[in-house]
Amino acid sequence: MSHTIRVTCAIIFKDQKVLCAQRSEKMSLPLKWEFPGGKIEDGESPEQSLIREIKEELNLEIEILREFQSYTHDYNNGKVIELIPFLARHIGGDLELKEHKQVIWKEIGNLKKLDWAEADIPILEDLLAWCRA
């Protein structure tokens, strides 16, 4: 029986574009695109975790604006994650890549052109629906 790993991710907006991160060759799901974030540590709220992870991985400071629906994804290797997305705004820091191969700022209408990690796809769909609403 596997336990669910709680993970946060940020949909970071700047100038009407969204930050998309490409996983490096060394990471699981190599070269897939994702919304950046990471595991929630003991004693952290999801919001605290996300602010810390984005600072650690990308050297960016964000302001969390709202939470989106979370999704559970089973990678069929015994690894199950609950991905908790937040809409955020870039408020400071100069981008530095610590883990990812690359990041790009992409217009909403072009997000589906990327090869997304499976767990991020329902979040992408929710984002697109929210932007159309």
From TrEMBL:
<dbReference type="Pfam" id="PF00293">
    <property type="entry name" value="NUDIX"/>
</dbReference>
<dbReference type="GO" id="GO:0035539">
    <property type="term" value="F:8-oxo-7,8-dihydrodeoxyguanosine triphosphate pyrophosphatase activity"/>
</dbReference>
<keyword id="KW-0378">Hydrolase</keyword>
<keyword id="KW-0515">Mutator protein</keyword>
<dbReference type="GO" id="GO:0044716">
    <property type="term" value="F:8-oxo-GDP phosphatase activity"/>
</dbReference>
<dbReference type="InterPro" id="IPR015797">
    <property type="entry name" value="NUDIX_hydrolase-like_dom_sf"/>
</dbReference>
<comment type="similarity">
    <text>Belongs to the Nudix hydrolase family.</text>
</comment>
<keyword id="KW-0235">DNA replication</keyword>
<dbReference type="InterPro" id="IPR047127">
    <property type="entry name" value="MutT-like"/>
</dbReference>
<dbReference type="GO" id="GO:0044715">
    <property type="term" value="F:8-oxo-dGDP phosphatase activity"/>
</dbReference>
<dbReference type="InterPro" id="IPR020476">
    <property type="entry name" value="Nudix_hydrolase"/>
</dbReference>
<keyword id="KW-0227">DNA damage</keyword>
<keyword id="KW-0234">DNA repair</keyword>
<protein>
    <recommendedName>
        <fullName>8-oxo-dGTP diphosphatase</fullName>
        <ecNumber>3.6.1.55</ecNumber>
    </recommendedName>
</protein>
<keyword id="KW-0479">Metal-binding</keyword>
<keyword id="KW-0460">Magnesium</keyword>
<feature type="domain" description="Nudix hydrolase">
    <location>
        <begin position="3"/>
        <end position="129"/>
    </location>
</feature>
<dbReference type="GO" id="GO:0046872">
    <property type="term" value="F:metal ion binding"/>
</dbReference>
<dbReference type="GO" id="GO:0006281">
    <property type="term" value="P:DNA repair"/>
</dbReference>
<dbReference type="InterPro" id="IPR000086">
    <property type="entry name" value="NUDIX_hydrolase_dom"/>
</dbReference>
<dbReference type="GO" id="GO:0006260">
    <property type="term" value="P:DNA replication"/>
</dbReference>
<dbReference type="GO" id="GO:0008413">
    <property type="term" value="F:8-oxo-7,8-dihydroguanosine triphosphate pyrophosphatase activity"/>
</dbReference>
